[in-house]
Amino acid sequence: MTLPSSSPAGAHAHSLSASAALQATGPRIRARRKDLGITQAALAERVGVSASYLNLIEHSRRSIGGTLLLRIAACLETSVDALSGREEGRLAADLTELAADPVLSVSPLPVQDIPHLVGAAPDLARAAVTVYRAYLDARSQTETLAERLAQDPYLMETSHQLLTLITSIRSFSEILEDYGDIDEVQRQRFITAIADESQKLSGLTGQMFDFLEGRTSRRPRQSPEEEVDDLIHDHGNHFPAIERAAERVRAGLHPEHTALFAALAERLRDRHGITIRFCPDSDLGEADSRYEPEERVLLLAESLPIASWRFHAARILGQEEAAEEVEGIAGDPRLSGDAAQARARDAMTRAFAAALLLPYHPFLKAAREERYDIERLQSRFGASFEQVCHRLTSLRVAEDDAIPFHLLRTDIAGNISKRFSASGLRLPRYSGTCPRWISHTAFLNPDRVMTQLARLPDGSSWLFIARAVSRPGGGFRAARTHHCVMIGCEASYARHMVYGDGLDVSSAHAGDPVGISCRQCPRTDCRQRAMPMLRSDGAAR
């Protein structure tokens, strides 16, 4: 199967971030080549293309990707990310979302200038995003503290005590200042009282800040979650070292998924001394599983489906047998602290589990044979809907000609808990999504796969596939957990998918009119709008 690299609709489908990155790939190659003192003819010979073709690439007159970009990156001693501009693309997407915030209505940031800003002054663009993150963090903390101050009895009482101590210190100080003729004994008594009250004030203030977690409330410019999300995005959600480790382990396991859990449990027990025990959900609290390394025991909730049992067992196996590969990624210098590294380790062991249970080449082959029918892939590999969707986003688009997907997971309140986009669709990072996306209405039809042909204001068309999934809490009174998993791609790929049958993707007017989010959507006839939109210059309408 040969997938289209572009289409009339797809020409507009990429966000500002994607288009800016693609346009800059050729000039980046030329700049890096010149920095190294390599002639155009010499580089063309090394990578196996003609000098004229390389000249077209460097002047953005030919697109580039896949193995050719990998060869050029290797010859220029740099990374594909550095040449393709993935980081700049993500930066432009963040700035576009930032520009839609009402706080900038007084000093608007023109959306049309964002690609130029990122290209001309990337450090300035990063600084703007950093300041915006700090603003969101400070606003969230302020709102939280205001609510706690208004409702928490301890804080109300402590605030009163603080005011009392401050008033007392001020009174004693005014006496010393206003009455210079008091005897030395009285003066010393007032000084002692001030010292005592000051000490009480210091102690009470410290207690209050401890209660508010003031000493630990400062966060890095990027949260651990954002750092790991960016790391995964920069790698295209594909980690060759993890894939190879999973292939190595898979070779020693039973190939049939019907017996795979038993094989995983046996390997954990025989090679690592880890036993699996099942327990009531109430014993695990809100978690699905818990690994106790001291006892070498993996506890699994009884209510979980076998697909989840396999996944958790494979994840622990990844901790044991792919530790070197996991640490190699978790040690990335872009991860600034222990929390981010711990989150990266968890993400990589989960990637290992996915690669082990859904082996790369057999899974890609099956996806093509089944025309990306997610439910049939579930049956083939004994996996959950979410596991299959995640795996589809980890296939190498450039090298293996796979469909570039985006994935979004939301809860019933619209909160985004997972997001990744290889398709070019810009997924909001700091705000909610358009209420007309199928990811919201899917909750009205639980456990049913729903599709949507969506048309953005720029004319691009997208195919969305969504399903609301839930997990029982393990009893009649236990709360259930509800999420919607949505996967999608450009509409130009619809003919390769079972979900695209019968859709008219060629019409410029086909599909449901949607936006990215209300603040960024220019549609004036939407009855679902939750807040006013902003013009391209940043002013509210």
Plain-language structure description:
Helix content is about 50%, strand content about 10%. With about 550 residues, the chain is α+β, with helices and mostly antiparallel strands. The strands form 2 sheets. It has a 6-stranded mixed sheet. Strands 1-3-2 form a 3-stranded mixed sheet. Helix 1 runs parallel beside helix 7, helix 12 crosses helix 16 and helix 14 packs across helix 16. The C terminus is likely disordered.
What's a quick, concise take on this entry?
With 541 residues, the protein is an alpha+beta fold.
Structural descriptors:
10% strand, globular, 541 residues, 9 strands, alpha+beta, 3-stranded mixed beta sheet, disordered C terminus
Cα distance spanning the termini: 46 Å
Instruction: Please give the number of β-strands.
Output: 9
User: Could you describe the largest sheet, including whether it forms a barrel?
Assistant: 6 strands, mixed
Order of SSEs: HHHHHHHHHHHHHEEEHHHHHHHEEHEEEE
